[in-house]
Amino acid sequence: MMMPSNTLQYAYEVYDTTIHQTIAFRLVELERDLSLIHNWMNQPYVIPFWNLAFDLKQMRSHLEAATSDSHQTLYIGYLDDEPMSYWESYWAIDDIVAQYYPAHVADQGIHLLIGSPDYLGKGYALPLLRAMVSFQFQHAATQKIIAEPDRRNHKMIHVFQRCGFKRQTEIDLPDKRALLMFCDRQ
Predict the structure, then answer these.
(1) In angstroms, rounded to a whole number, what is the distance separating the alpha carbons of residues 4 and 23?
(2) 17-56 burial, b for 16+ CB within 10 Å, e for fewer?
(3) Is CB count within 10 Å lower at the N or C end of the chain?
(4) How many domains does the chain have?
């Protein structure tokens, strides 16, 4: 059930003129979002890249750990007050990815997925990513945003590149062979 927009508490909100819609992000709330995230993580197009096709109890445990992890912040992304994406913003220095490049204390990383199949293939990924990167760059000390998409995820790699991310190198993370990518503030 969608809540009226006046009850939503967004951490960031911007109107995107390329899609003529408002993009917004709010913090994940475990009880409110558990079923939604569980459904999204079990979508056939999400499973190969996230490996979180858990049952509801396992998803609760995963999200409890993730929301209490101080190195990351979880968000639900919205288009015109409709929840449709999941985001993880993290401090790279405190993440395993810091073993693969000389991470700065203010570098941020990003993970994302489009949750509902209704939003796939409609050109939303790039405007959403631009909005999140803009949100992350509001932290004045952040000069670099990093991403490490699965190297098989050619669609997302293309979207990251269109958003200004540059390929660095392939890296072996515990759950995937990834392409390390950087987006510098300038």
Answers:
(1) 15
(2) eebebbbbbbebeeeebbebbbebbbbeebeebbebeeee
(3) N
(4) 1
- 76 belongs to a structural domain: yes
**Within-domain flag for 66:** yes
Q: Is residue 13 part of a domain?
A: yes
**For residue 89, is it within any domain?**
yes
| Radius of gyration of the chain from its Cα atoms, rounded to whole angstroms | 16
- Separation of alpha carbons 130 and 163, rounded Å: 6
Range of the domain at 133: 8-184
Q: What is the mean pLDDT of residues 61-75?
A: 96
